């Protein structure tokens, strides 16, 4: 029993320690921003994620279209398919799945890249050249992640809506006009769309911070890089889902 | 200095003469690299003082350390070249950051330094496309391109064939003579130390021994003379029973 209490106490201390270090680390991610490096990172994290986001958005939209149709048709409400697909994607699935996908692709790549730079002394090399590695490497990556997340989420939603249309209208035979009009009447710009983008922004901050922090503080070994990558995906995904609940519960988004 | 509760350097006192080549010798794990990292301000000691160019680097702020580092150049063991940049851009990087030279002048200086270290036609290559010896030479060129007063070289001969060792050694001697740079070289390569060092600082568990290389080689202290003559103390080897050797433990587990 005493061992359990001791372990729990130790785990709590470690958690608080990491939280404090993360806060200090986040405080360093401040301007000046190197614009060219930032644009390069937007390309690396955003443009290179486009295909996975578009394909997954389309697939999720098609599944939602099929499942939504099969459920709604029991109640004779298949004309509301657009509203069901739209609200599900905009309020929930778009930002959450985009953030999870971005964590797996861009977040892990970011942690691995920074971790490798730590292991190969590239960051120390920058310090010895009187160049702050946080300004050169960390800040552009973290800010680029925050910048691209809402854009990727919006793209995911657009492709999801198209997928829902494809499955519901083209395959299952729902009226196209009804799909679009129910979508249009159900979605509110300020409540749903702005809220969705804000959610994606919060997830961008989370993934950007976790990925850069894990990479920056990784042990300077290949095992350290591997651990940083794994923990970015695990911690990032868990945090996204927990924050999603609180954002939904507190803000009603 | 300690890492994770393990003392690495204890009771270290030494001076490195201006304009000379000082070689820091010691066995693996003796703390040679740690000495260089302490001098560069990359890590801070638990106790003690380190004076570089008249200032105590153990008490300086990050901004003041950056000012001191402009007088330092460091050649890291693995090169620490930025993997995402070409060799040309790696060398041009510190000049672009810290000088107002036009791009043409930067290109001229980069090519001058690359030629000086015997590298040509490597402008567009990435560090990953170079051999170990070429990376060391490119790292050396980057370290001296800003014309530092003090050059720190971390294990410049490790992992190199005998020809490459002599080539790097000749380069270091030439740079020392032509540019009047104070050089601190960490190494465990005895032949090159005997040829190039003006002063040797030998790290041992109970402190340091320093002097001219020939002086230490003929030292009355059997441990010091034995280190220089690469003699193995077989009485110490015999103390560990065969079954205690790690490799055999793994083989039987």
3D structure, described in words:
The complex is a heterodimer of chains A (253) and B (253). Chain A is mostly helical. Helix content of chain A is 85%, strand content 0%. Chain A has helices at 2-28, 35-45, 50-72, 81-119, 122-128, 133-171, 176-186, 189-216, 222-251. The radius of gyration of chain A is 21 Å and the shape is elongated. The model of chain A has no long low-confidence stretch (mean pLDDT 94). Chain B is an alpha/beta fold and 253 residues long. In chain B, 42% of the residues lie in helices and 15% in strands. A 6-stranded mixed sheet of chain B has the order 6-7-8-3-9-10, with helices on both faces. Chain B has a two-stranded antiparallel sheet with strand order 1-2. The chains are: A mainly alpha (253), B alpha/beta (253). Chain A binds chain B through residues 116-117, 120-122, 124-132, and chain B through 37, 40, 42, 62, 66-67, 69-70, 72-74, 76-78, 80-83, 93-94, 97-98, 146.
Summarize the structure.
The complex is a heterodimer of chains A (253) and B (253). Chain A is mainly α.
The end-to-end distance of chain B, rounded to whole angstroms, is 35 Å
Mean of pLDDT of chain B: 85
Strand order of the largest sheet of chain B: 6-7-8-3-9-10
Overall morphology of chain B: globular
Based on secondary structure, the structural category of chain B is: alpha/beta
Strand content of chain A: under 5%
Q: Termini distance of chain A?
A: 42 Å
What would you call the quaternary organization? heterodimer
Radius of gyration of chain B: 20 Å
| Strand elements of chain B, count | 10
**Sheet with most strands of chain B:** 6 strands, mixed
Helix content of chain B: 40-55%
- Assign an overall shape of chain A: elongated
- Rg of chain A is 21 Å
Largest sheet of chain A: none
């Amino acid at each position: 029993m005493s061992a359990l209490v001791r372990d729990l106490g130790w785990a709590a201390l470690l958690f608080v320690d990491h939280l404090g270090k993360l806060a200090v680390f986040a405080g360093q991610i401040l301007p000046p921003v190197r614009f060219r490096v930032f644009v390069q990172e937007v390309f690396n994290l955003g443009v290179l994620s486009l295909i996975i986001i578009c394909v997954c958005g389309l697939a999720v939209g098609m599944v939602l279209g099929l499942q939504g149709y099969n459920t709604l048709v029991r109640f004779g409400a298949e004309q509301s398919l657009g509203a069901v697909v739209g609200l599900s994607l905009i309020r929930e699935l778009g930002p959450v799945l985009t953030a999870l996908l971005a964590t797996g692709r861009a977040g892990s790549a970011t942690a691995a890249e920074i971790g490798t730079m730590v292991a190969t002394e590239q960051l120390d090399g920058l310090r010895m050249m009187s160049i702050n590695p946080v300004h050169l490497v960390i800040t552009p990556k973290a800010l680029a992640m925050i910048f691209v997340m809402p854009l990727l989420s919006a793209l995911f939603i657009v492709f999801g809506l198209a997928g829902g249309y494809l499955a519901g209208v083209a395959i299952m035979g729902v009226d196209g006009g009804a799909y679009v009009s129910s979508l249009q009447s159900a979605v509110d710009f300020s409540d749903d769309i702005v809220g969705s983008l804000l959610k994606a922004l919060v997830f961008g901050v989370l993934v950007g911070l976790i990925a850069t922090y894990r990479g920056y503080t990784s042990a300077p070994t290949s095992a350290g890089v591997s651990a940083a990558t794994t923990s970015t995906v695990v911690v990032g995904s868990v945090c996204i889902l927990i924050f999603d609940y609180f954002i939904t519960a507190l803000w009603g988004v | 200095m300690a890492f994770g509760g393990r003392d690495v350097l204890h009771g270290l006192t030494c001076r490195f003469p201006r304009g000379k080549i000082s070689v820091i010798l010691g066995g693996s794990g003796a703390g040679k690299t740690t000495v260089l990292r302490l001098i560069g301000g990359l890590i801070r000691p638990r106790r003690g003082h380190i004076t570089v160019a008249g200032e105590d680097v153990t008490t300086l702020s990050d901004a003041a350390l950056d000012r001191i580092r402009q007088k330092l150049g460091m050649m890291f063991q693995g090169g620490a070249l930025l993997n995402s940049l070409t060799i040309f851009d790696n060398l041009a990087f510190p000049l672009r950051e810290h000088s107002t030279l036009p791009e043409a002048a930067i290109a001229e200086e980069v090519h001058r330094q690359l030629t000086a270290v015997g590298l040509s036609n490597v402008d567009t290559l990435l560090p990953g496309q170079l051999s170990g010896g070429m990376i060391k030479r490119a790292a050396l060129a980057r370290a001296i391109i800003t014309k530092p007063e003090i050059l720190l070289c971390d294990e410049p001969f490790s992992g190199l064939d005998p020809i490459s060792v002599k080539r790097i050694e000749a380069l270091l001697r030439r740079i020392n003579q032509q540019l009047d740079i104070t050089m601190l070289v960490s190494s465990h390569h005895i032949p090159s130390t005997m040829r190039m060092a003006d002063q040797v600082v030998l790290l041992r568990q109970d402190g340091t021994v320093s002097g001219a290389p020939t002086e230490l080689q003929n030292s009355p202290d059997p441990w010091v003379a034995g280190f220089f003559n690469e003699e193995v103390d077989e009485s110490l080897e015999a103390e560990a029973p065969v079954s205690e050797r790690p490799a055999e433990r793994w083989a039987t587990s």
